[in-house]
């Protein structure tokens, strides 16, 4: 958010701290290094530890039209988001597209896969026309493999891959982190944190978990709950790296009811009431802590390469949103 916007929204705070970059609510603490909101910021600046402008990384425009139209100022980067939807709403495509849009922005991504082997996870990108080989070679993508070691005959799986699958597996070999026992929470989280460290993911990038339904088959309900809390604290809140997980509304697990565990919930549904001859796909933001959201359903569809896009009457939500003070604000990117 620009200084101009802060001034418009809070004209009584016209000054910005030269350390934390937030408005100075009272008389500034001044020194030869600048003006500060507090003694703590003044002393930190004297130690040459001035912070990066937080507005540069604290909000994310996903690049996915149906979502960005409902969150006009961007998603807080310290969010743990749940994509909760019916079968057929293309949750998997949305999750993989979120990772691709991060790579497209030049940021790193980590995909934690419980439901598919790494080559199948990478194939999801290719099915959409999104070539991830450069990201693998440029060290911007990691696959945390929580699937392969659960196979009864892992060697048979590797031996029977076709030429393309074998090529992709070899090209991605250095980017794959194998988890031998994904039911071991410590091994799972250590593998994830190791991937984040390898990619130097602080204040940048995205993590996806595919999927909570499959994870629930490995862990008891309470363990899933605790795992989400641990990842939320260590990845989202400490590093300012958003995490996105998907789950089906058909699941019997407790996580859909445990709304306080998630910072944001995006509901996806199939609607046949407004178009009797079609089952329309719609999404809405049920909640998103720390962000302004539009309270409506957006109809969307999917095309390879293009990804998810809004269409129709309620899909024509403007990308700009009136903040209520005569100004309009675009989503901010990191």
UniProtKB/TrEMBL annotation:
InterPro entries: KaiC-like_dom, P-loop_NTPase
GO MF: ATP binding
Keyword Nucleotide-binding (UniProt): yes
Residue ranges annotated for the KaiC-like domain, each copy included: 60-301
Keyword ATP-binding tagged: yes
Record SUPFAM superfamilies: P-loop containing nucleoside triphosphate hydrolases (SSF52540)
UniProtKB keywords: ATP-binding, Nucleotide-binding
Cross-referenced Pfam families: ATPase
Protein name as it appears in the record: Recombinase RecA
Organism, scientific name: Natrinema halophilum
